[in-house]
Design brief:
The chain is 14% helix and 50% strand. Keywords: Repeat, Signal.
C-alpha cells in the first residue's frame, strides 16, 4: 500500500512539473538562441531557433542606433532567419523577434548586434527566464561567412 501511494505521488509530481514547464494553453512560446553573422560589408544574417509548440509565423522588429530607424518584417514559420540587405556596421541593431499564432503573440526574444569596432562585431542576446533577463555575449568575426 505504501509503495503505490509513493508511486502515485511521484507520478503526480512529475505531471505537475511537466504541466508547468510547457506554456499555458493558448500561450505562444518565444523564439530562442539569437545569432547574427556578417555575410558581407553590407549584409547581416540573423537567425534564431524556433519555439516549441504551435505557431504560424514571426514578426521581427529592429531599430538602428544612431538614427532610430525602425523596421518590422513578417517572416514565414519555416524560415527562422532574415538577411538585412543594407547593413551598416557603424550602427547598433536592436532586435525583437515574436512568434505569432492566430491573434496571439509570444513574449519577444530580444537581442542587440553592436556596432563594429576593429573588425569584430558583438552580439548581446537577452534571454527571458523565470528569474529575469540574462545577457550573453558572442563575438562574431567579420571574416566568417555562410
Amino acid at each position: 500500500m505504501h509503495f503505490s501511494v509513493g508511486l502515485s505521488l511521484c507520478l503526480l509530481g512529475f505531471a505537475f512539473v511537466s504541466l508547468f514547464s510547457q506554456p499555458a494553453q493558448g500561450q505562444v512560446s518565444s523564439p530562442r538562441r539569437f545569432r547574427a553573422k556578417i555575410q558581407s560589408p553590407t549584409k547581416l544574417h540573423v537567425s534564431w531557433k524556433e519555439p516549441k509548440g504551435q505557431f504560424d509565423s514571426y514578426k521581427v522588429f529592429y531599430t538602428t542606433e544612431p538614427g532610430g530607424e525602425q523596421k518590422d518584417i513578417e517572416v514565414l514559420k519555416q524560415e527562422a532567419k532574415l538577411v538585412i540587405e543594407h547593413y551598416d556596421p557603424s550602427k547598433e541593431y536592436n532586435f525583437k523577434i515574436i512568434a505569432v499564432s492566430g491573434g496571439q503573440q509570444s513574449k519577444p526574444l530580444q537581442a542587440k548586434h553592436e556596432a563594429q569596432q576593429s573588425g569584430v562585431a558583438m552580439v548581446k542576446s537577452l534571454k527571458r527566464q523565470d528569474s529575469g533577463a540574462t545577457e550573453e555575449n558572442n563575438e562574431i568575426s567579420e571574416g566568417k561567412f555562410f
